[in-house]
Structures are given as C-alpha cells and as structure tokens.
Amino acid sequence: xxEEKRYHCCASCEHFRVEKGEQGVVxxxxxxxxxxxxxxxxQCWSPREHVRRLMQKEQQN
Length: 61
Prior knowledge:
The protein is an alpha+beta fold and 61 residues long. Helices cover 30% and strands 20% of the residues. Strands 1-2 form a two-stranded antiparallel sheet. The protein is elongated, with a radius of gyration of 13 Å. The model has no long low-confidence stretch (mean pLDDT 91).
C-alpha cells in the first residue's frame, strides 16, 4: 500500500504524544514508552483516524 508509506511516521500514529515540561518538548510513544521524533517510523504504527480516512480516500481514487 503506497499510501501507507506516504503517511507512515510517528506523528501520524494514534500513540504519538507531545509532552511539554521545564526541560522543553519531548515526543513519546505512549504504547512503547520510548522517546521518539515526529518523522521516525516503527513497524507498530497505528494511524490516527483522520489519516486512515485520507488513505482510504486515496485508495478509492
């Protein structure tokens, strides 16, 4: 599915969290518990609902 490759990154995953603290902003995967970056990719990616809809729309076209 080429649409998946287009959207596949941590920032579009439902488990991606942004934590703001005194030390600055930290990006974290709530499922794995690891610090991450918005453009990183992992095999456990679960796209957010709006990303799923975009992928379905592209697949239909």
